Amino acid sequence: MTKIIRLDAPIVVGAGVAGLSVALGLERVYVITSKEMGSTWWAQGGIAAALGEDDSPQVHAADTIAVSGGLAVYEAVSALTIGGPDAITRLIQMGAEFDRDDDGGLLLGREGGHRARRVVRADGDATGAEVMRALNEAVTASEMVEVIDGRVVDLARSGDRVVGVLTVDGKSRTLYTAPAVVMATGGAGRMYSRTTNPQGVTGDGIMSASRAGARLADVEFVQFHPTALNAGKDPMPLLTEALRGEGARLVDASGRRFMDRFHPMAELAPRDIVARAIFWQNDRGSSAYLDGRSILNFHERFPTVTAHALSVGLDPTEHLLPVSPAAHFYMGGIDADSRGRTSVPGLWAVGECSSTGVHGANRLASNSLLEGLVFGARVALDVQGGASFDFTGVEVPKEGLDLPVLAGPVIEDLRQIMWDRVGLIRTGDGLWEARNSIIDIEPVLSRTVSGRNASDLGLLITMAALRRSETRGGHYRADYPDEDPKQAMRALLVPGAADTVRVGA
User: Fold this and answer.
1) d(C-alpha 65, C-alpha 114), whole Å
2) For residues 448 and 445, what is the distance between their CA atoms, to the nearest angstrom?
3) CA nearest to 241, candidates 221, 264, 217, 267
4) What's the rounded mean pLDDT across residues 492-496?
5) How much is the pTM?
6) 421 is an active site residue
7) Catalytic pick from 90, 271, 415, 468?
8) What is the pLDDT of residues 358-397, one digit of tens each?
């Protein structure tokens, strides 16, 4: 039996940096969130914003576009970088504490792909946790935000408009109807066997939006962080990009640097290039390591990395840290404009589950938290004027009414297929093998909510990677190693309609 509750204000699904940024910009809002901790908490890197005297939003935009593989949408990038300084100011006003220099000014770091020092951090490598602390305190202090426990299963529609969210909490399902729905559910990194993403990040929001008819974009573009600690943990502990910005070097087992063979910027090259270089090192049996022993006061400056390393018996001031790329950030997702509007009325998308073109084919380091902050505020303004209470006859995809939530062990087979065949190095033959393998296990995976979402999105990514017969940004085809100017465009997917059933009177 599905309980139906009619809400009198918009719903935001997700309580990470993007979701809470939307919520805090609305007059009244309900935030639906699962008990699993989202990716924002884990973010070690900082927030990029043009705050230095030698910097500007225009230079930040140029750096963002330069690494985007030619697919960045200028309007979205401009909105992002112009909004950066104000986003930092709002966080500070909420009480967020960022690292400061000896004069009390914000301490600005530099990361790969950035031409200037523009990255603000908290406690060296715990920026995400500090951002979430400040946002959560603001939400707690607000009387206008109500938090509801639940995991998204599907979206509800009335005619051509999204009008609510079907959720599950334990064994009970609840359909919440509302005048507007904002998806802020994060990415899909858990589809890969090597990932920095926590449990639950399996594309649930993206695929529920797709089943409601929302157009998807750029689904083939998955970003792999170059340096995850390769020590047998799942998720793999992240070794922040800031380490290389502060002088850490990538070396082989004999201590020799190797990045200068791949790019003039060496360790500060765009992260897709660094990730593939490390992958090749590991694949040919010459392990890759991060050498941060030259960084002064390492333990104090990077306490999170230190804790991760010490947990596996390594001291980063004394030892080389074994590294591997890992699935980290998703550039594809729900197609949305720079106000978060999707192709379906009543539905907005923001943050990693959305695809506005702000990252193109490859994200610039430390633009992800910034995206949630800037676009969260922009979406809130648009939702406030676009909500509607006028709907009747609510329908939901019928399969979502009784599917169990969590996938069984076969999900690990999917994760390995995605890593082996749809990961950093892709080929036509390998992608066809992945397609066939996913189809073979899909009947089992589709018996659960998370399994259905992961297999459906995995197949979409695989087929989109097959169609893009070139190399661009985070998408590398070994059989098509060059960019093809004729394919310099975003790829849009229009889903087929899911079978629905009417719920309630």
Assistant:
1) 11
2) 6
3) 267
4) 85
5) 0.94
6) no
7) 271
8) 999 999 989 999 999 999 999 999 998 777 777 778 899 8
